[in-house]
């Protein structure tokens, strides 16, 4: 069934991969960008491109009313050149603006981007039943407060799917050749310790958002099948990026536990990149 979809953050890292999937399925997509150039690129791709400041509540309200979508997909972040405080503001105030406009426009369903490393400390990869880490100290508290606000706000719509993504890798991410993590490896900033991460390839993240159009309400971890400690994945990343591998060390924070994807499997989603080993070279 084709739908009218409002894709907030259509020119962002996931949005760029998600838009062609939605268009290929025949959906009519209104996509947002912060710049006129980005809106023009969306038009060229086959969507209706809109330049939008999500913090301008009146503008967001008018835009949602005019687009009259059946579903809102929230992929807004402030990660490109921003800080954790900027991203928390986007999750808090940007989500509030978007949800209020969606409610006023009669939208029932929202699919929203969250993260899978916001759980409280534990020994095993976290399932969706684990509480968020609401007692975390700063600087982690800034991230958790933003995530908590985002997730609580989107539940105000009758149908709400919260995609708790693992760490994104693949083309255009921080883990691609020549990107942030390569620089950190060369500068010796990364520790090959016991901290467990769960990854997800950018293409699998986009596919999950398409699948979520028909999923029941609630949070879902979107990660690959191999949570792994840094001392396992960092040497492989370093080799793929042509960077020196850090020496192995010990220790981790309690929240660095990874996340389990069994709930997503039960919903029928499985990552095409079942492990980060398949794509650290930027493919």
Provide a concise account of the structure shown.
The chain is 37% helix and 17% strand.
Can you offer a commentary on this structure?
The protein has helices at residues 13-24, 36-45, 57-67, 84-104, 140-154, 180-187, 202-211, 230-241, 262-266; strands at 4-8, 28-33, 48-51, 71-74, 109-115, 159-165, 167-169, 196-197, 199-201, 218-222, 228-229. With 283 residues, it is α/β, with parallel strands linked by helices. Strands 3-2-1-4-5-6-10 form a seven-stranded parallel β-sheet, with helices on both faces. It has a two-stranded parallel sheet with strand order 7-9. It has a two-stranded antiparallel ribbon with strand order 8-11. The longest helix has 21 residues, at 84-104. The two termini are 31 Å apart.
DSSP strand content: 15-25%
Number of E-state strands: 11
Spatial order of the strands forming the largest sheet: 3-2-1-4-5-6-10
Unreliable stretches, pLDDT < 50, 5 or more residues?
none
- Secondary-structure element series: EHEHEHEHEHEEHEEHEEHH
Binned, the helix content reads 25-40%
- Structural class from helices and strands? alpha/beta
Average pLDDT figure: 96
Cα distance spanning the termini: 31 Å
- Number of H/I helices: 9
**Radius of gyration, CA atoms, in whole angstroms:** 18 Å
Characterize the largest beta sheet: strand count, sense, and whether it forms a barrel: 7 strands, parallel
Q: What is the global morphology? A: globular
What are the key terms here?
alpha/beta, 283 residues, 9 helices
Q: Strands, helices and their partners?
A:
Elements: E1 4-8, H1 13-24, E2 28-33, H2 36-45, E3 48-51, H3 57-67, E4 71-74, H4 84-104, E5 109-115, H5 140-154, E6 159-165, E7 167-169, H6 180-187, E8 196-197, E9 199-201, H7 202-211, E10 218-222, E11 228-229, H8 230-241, H9 262-266
Helix pairs in contact: 1-7, 3-4, 4-5
